[in-house]
Amino acid sequence: MHKGLLIAGLCAGLLGGCKPPPTDAAMARVSLVTSASGPSAPLASPDTTGAIWSTTDKALRLVYGVPGQPVMISLECHAPGTADAALTITRHAPADSGAAALLALIGNGRIGRFPVDATEVGGRVLWQGEVSAARPEWDALKPEREATVTVPGAGLVRLNPSPLPMALVSTCRGAPPEIAPPVIVPEIAPPPVVSPIP
Fold first, then answer.
1. Cβ 65 vs Cβ 73: under 8 Å
2. Would you give per-residue pLDDT tens digits along the chain (198 residues)?
3. How far is CA 14 from the centre of its chain?
4. In this structure, what are the phi and psi dihedrals at residue 28, rounded to the nearest 5 degrees?
5. Residues 6+ apart with CB under 8 A from 13
6. Considering the entire predicted model, what is its pTM?
7. Residue 68 burial (CB < 10 Å; 0-12/13-18/19+)?
8. How far is residue 39's CA from residue 77's CA, in Å, rounded to a whole number?
9. What angle is formed at CA 114 by the lines to CA 108 and CA 118, rounded to 5 degrees?
10. Please, are residues 54 and 159 in contact by the beta-carbon 8 Å criterion?
């Protein structure tokens, strides 16, 4: 399954043309300084035209964003295939220290409301939460339709359909690799025996 994620990631990368996939390094170039005098002003919803899911150098971690621009969302699996399997979802937008909120993941007939906290990640304070991989709300990431992620004050992020996030969820849950069903070939009856004409 890990190999499948890498192959799918290469295919997704081609959609971004010659630009590199969204990276955490790109995010580091954006100032995320928040005001110490009170809550930060709400952010506008980002433009997700051309945004894609991409694999990273870290196993079982995906990032979402427009190629060549800062990451908007990241998703990472911990303890795959165990009872403690969980997914960490990060909204790469500034959060006020000490703040907490509910991240809404909506899509494919599912509505997930996951608790997120202002968490220091690489020297930046971002919205992050860890949720059991067994939660059915992760099925909102199925590639059949667009999904959305919303955090109060951090805008709405539209997730363009991709097989990568749901493949990561399935791997985290410990699902075995998908195997094509065997092809059943019907038996061919032998030709009838023709008795010689006397």
1. yes
2. 454 454 444 444 444 455 666 766 544 444 334 444 456 788 999 999 999 999 999 999 999 999 999 999 999 999 999 999 999 999 999 999 999 999 999 999 999 999 999 999 999 999 999 999 999 999 999 999 999 999 999 999 999 999 999 999 999 999 865 544 555 555 555 555 556 666
3. 18
4. -65, -20
5. 21, 52, 54, 67
6. 0.74
7. middle
8. 31
9. 135
10. no
- Location of structure tokens 């997730």: 159
Q: Two tokens at 107?
A: 């899509």
